[in-house]
Amino acid sequence: MATHAMIISLAFLKDGQRAVRAQGQQRFQSEIFHIAPQKGGTLAFTIFNMGSKYGTIIMGPAGAGKTTFCSALIQHLRASRRSCFYINLDPAAEDFVYEPDVDIKDLISLSDVMEELHLGPNGGLIYCFEFLLENLDFLTDPLETVTDEYMIVIDMPGQIELYTHVPIVPQLVKHLGHGSLNISLCAAYLLESTFIGDKAKFFAGTLSAMSAMLMMEIPHVNILSKMDLVKGQVARRDLKKFVDPDMSLLQDGPESGLVYEYKEGVDNGEPDPAEAESVMSGESFAKLNRAVGQLIDDFSLVSFLKLDVQDEDSVGAVLSYIDDAIQFHEAQEPREPMEVEEMDGD
Ligand SMILES: Nc1nc2c(ncn2[C@@H]2O[C@H](COP(=O)(O)OP(=O)(O)OP(=O)(O)O)[C@@H](O)[C@H]2O)c(=O)[nH]1
Ligand SMILES: [Mg+2]
After folding, report:
1. Overall average pLDDT of the 83-96 stretch
2. What residue ranges do the domains of the chain occupy?
3. Higher-confidence residue: 139 or 37?
4. Per-residue pLDDT tens over the stretch 45-64
5. Could you tell me if 70 and 58 are in contact, meaning their C-beta atoms sit under 8 angstroms apart?
6. How far apart are the C-alpha atoms of 52 and 134, rounded to whole Å?
7. What Å distances lie between residue 2 and 5, 28, 49, 173, 295, CA to CA?
8. What's the rounded Cα separation, in Å, for the pair 230 and 226?
9. Could you tell me where the DSSP H helices lie in the chain?
10. Closest C-alpha residue for ligand 1 atom 30
């Protein structure tokens, strides 16, 4: 059966209106109209056709827990008797709990690139991805045989420049989502929960999540990883303000360093951030943070799912958001009772 999908992405205009832009036009057979945003920050409107391939691309800053989440996800998929196809696209990754079905290191390794081309780690990584884009068959050929019952799990490197600064990963995602592969992909963007201890860091991370979301133009969930590290340390009410980022966090006490202090007897208009005094007193920084907070608020697109990889239910909950975002279950053929029994006997 020919498979087609179309992503309609949202462009948000300055005045808060939404413009709908259609990308890549195709024919449709059975259609599902999936409307977002939902919890976790799904961006795109998606129209799917049954019979596509399904996958998730795991992204986020260095050390956010991407590879660990991939392993937990694969373990959960296996325990739920679901098939999984694991792709490692981090050319520097060495240790895996589950052996990848496709590993970019079999095409190119970061250490070889750095040694032979005398590049640093970041330049080397960009070279590796450019090389992958020139040799896409390495990735697409093994995927041709993957059926719609599989969840394709793609582990990415932690350099967020790849998603937010240079359009390499957005380009790769477009290749995977179109043409003969036509994979319905959900981006999962991980941010470490310990960031909530530093509001400026947390909002900078949130901004990077939003930037990746807008660059990718695919369904997207944001995840606060390593929740075990903040368990019992943050009141539930306070945590809620980070899960659905609340700009009032930036109005908290002056110790946050994010607030412009009102001074008696002084012109209380906003100080000029370019003035040396504003820079030295931290007021420029506070103003920048308020502007970033306002930007995130204006888009009101980013919210987070909480993830504790040790907790099977938590991994299952995140997976069900990903499944929903790509309409995985709608595409599955109902199984005959005999088939289920056979699987049970495996
Ligand atoms: N406590 C805790 N530690 C975690 C969790 N997930 C990952 N870690 C630890 O965080 C470190 C980084 O985890 P990785 O899964 O390698 O992170 P990554 O995002 O793949 O890192 P890069 O690929 O290098 O960007 C490791 O030491 C993990 O053991 C978690 O849920 N809880
Ligand atoms: Mg990793």
Report:
1. 94
2. 52-245+306-334, 257-301
3. 139
4. 444 444 489 999 999 999 99
5. yes
6. 24
7. 10, 9, 9, 20, 41
8. 8
9. 66-79, 110-117, 121-134, 137-144, 161-164, 168-177, 199-216, 236-243, 276-281, 283-299, 312-326, 337-344
10. 226
Residue appearing with tokens 């050390």: 63
Options 3.40.30.10, 3.40.640.10, 3.40.50.300, 3.60.9.10; CATH for 52-245+306-334 is 3.40.50.300
Half-sphere exposure of 92 (CA within 13 A, CB side): 18
Please give all residues whose beta carbon lies within 6 A of any atom in ligand 1, as ranges.
62-68, 90, 157-158, 225-226, 228-229, 309
Tokens for 221?
């969930």
The pTM for the full model equals: 0.78
Instruction: Give the β-pairing of 304-306 and 150-155.
Output: unpaired
Q: Which ligand is nearest to the CA of 314?
A: 1
Q: Which residues, at least 6 apart from 184, have a Cβ–Cβ distance to it below 8 Å?
A: 5, 46, 48, 52, 53, 54, 55, 177, 219, 326, 327, 328
pLDDT of residue 341: 55
pLDDT, one tens digit per residue, over 243-259 is 887 777 766 555 444 44
By most ligand atoms within 8 Å of CB, the mutation choice from 67, 70, 75, 103 for ligand 1 is 67
Query: Cβ distance 181 to 144 under 8 Å?
Result: yes
Q: Are 90 and 169 in contact (CB under 8 A)?
A: no
